[in-house]
Amino acid sequence: MSDYKVLLFYKYVNLKNPELIVLEHLHWCLQNDIKGRVFFATEGVNGTVSGTVEKIGKYKKQLTAYPEFSDIWFKEDEAVEHTFKKMHVRLKNEIVHGDLTDVSLNSGGKKLTPEELLKFYQEKKDFIIVDARNWYESKIGKFQNAITPQMKNFREWKKVVDQSLSEFKDKTVITYCTGGIRCEKASAYMVESGFKDVYQLEGGIVNFIQKYPDTFWEGGMFVFDERKVVVPNSKEEMKHIGRCHFCGSPTSYYINCHNIDCDKIIVSCHECKVENGYCCSDECRQSKRKRKQFH
Ligand SMILES: [Zn+2]
Ligand SMILES: [Zn+2]
User: Fold this and answer.
1) What is the pLDDT at residue 1?
2) pLDDT number for residue 293
3) 273 Cα to the center of ligand 2, angstroms
4) Beta-strand relationship, 172-176 and 110-112
5) Whole-model pTM?
6) Active-site residue set
7) Confidence of residue 228 (pLDDT cuts 50, 70, 90)
8) What is the arithmetic mean of pLDDT over 45-58?
9) Which ligand is nearest to the CA of 258?
10) 287 alpha carbon – ligand 2 mean position (Å)
């Protein structure tokens, strides 16, 4: 049963008064039982929200009533319940924090549709595909043969490009991320750095796996809500590429080490998580400052 929906959306557009929209938007969402997180900035909007099918319908009308967002593209997914506990609407400097304010969106890589990416793979075209997400996201899922930089966060993208991707300047390079937003600037930075043939996956992984599960996406997809991970493939051997930190069995699940001072992300199967007290090591298990165990 899927009585709920999850929306993922972003748009780069000049907003004159984002602070006003923040207030209006929060108020409306609280009244309509919409939960999630939405960031506004003078450069646009970035959000993920959940709600009942009916309320999500209303939400789309509410947001697209702003002329700036009239053509915004919602990526939709079904859910059995809210995928967020609360509603956060915030004013930000950048809609994705990447220290890329000096990069022009007009430089962005050419948009590559899921159909085109599928063809690139099927026809064995000569291309490099790069994950623009963080290390803990690519650890449990990635495109076949993708380069997965070990970034702690998106602010390290410039360093990654300058230090480890520069040898591919003359190659065809494709960047991808969850919903496409990080690639707008990630690919623009590459173009501005002299990469000659740069593409960005349109609509991100979300867009691809809905259309072509069990093809070239391997493993689970990390999401920034209560679901934590989406597993799009049905073929057993393609479901999980992550390995449990403790026993090595295939899994896409992870926890944050429950020692608050460690908080490290560890991929762990359910059994090992419980057995190890939700902690990464003996040292952490003995810590006094620990988070509560929920499930
Ligand atoms: Zn395990
Ligand atoms: Zn730890």
Assistant:
1) 67
2) 77
3) 12
4) unpaired
5) 0.93
6) 177
7) confident
8) 98
9) 2
10) 9
